[in-house]
Design goal:
Elements (H helix, E strand, L loop, with lengths): L4 H12 L4 E2 L3 H7 L6 E7 L3 H17 L6 E6 L4 H11 L9 E6 L2 E6 L9 H15 L2
Parallel strand pairs: 1-3, 2-3
Antiparallel strand pairs: 2-4, 4-5
Helix pairs in contact: 2-4, 3-5
């Protein structure tokens, strides 16, 4: 059962304020990760504290600071966008243990970089942002 939408609104805005688009349905997610889609950062958002204090701020920092950026940045909300999150985990990342928050860069629908929750919860937002910027420089045209 999803969290009440009213609870999620400010947490969604923590990412959308940086131009991250919501992919709340499986169709929206499939469209953005279609073959030929270029580079796409997919952020699995979450209600947990490490999403609020670390993951979401790190995404904002990385997107604002990096000269190279993915063609698109999108998000699904674990516990909110249930079907889209399940589609991401089961179809696009079947070999990756479920993680929220998490961040994955896809190139033409294939994952090329993944940051699991365990790499987020033990560090601070600026450190996470540096890893994202490095991944942008490596994988984004």
């Amino acid at each position: 059962m999803p969290y009440p939408e009213q609870l999620l609104i400010p947490m969604r805005q923590d990412l959308t304020q940086y131009g991250v688009e919501e992919t709340r349905t499986t169709d929206a997610l499939d469209a953005v990760l279609a073959p030929g889609s270029g580079t796409v950062l997919v952020v699995v958002n979450s209600v947990c504290g490490c999403a609020a204090g670390k993951a979401r701020p790190a995404v904002g920092m990385a997107l604002q600071r990096s000269a190279k950026r993915p063609d698109k940045a999108v998000t699904v909300f674990a516990g909110g966008d249930v079907e889209a999150t399940d589609r991401l985990r089961n179809h696009y990342l079947p070999q990756v243990p479920p993680s929220s928050p998490s961040m994955t860069i896809f190139r033409n629908g294939e994952p090329v970089f993944h940051m699991h929750r365990r790499e987020i919860e033990s560090r601070q937002a600026p450190e996470i942002a540096l890893d994202l910027v490095s991944a942008f420089e490596r994988f984004c045209a």
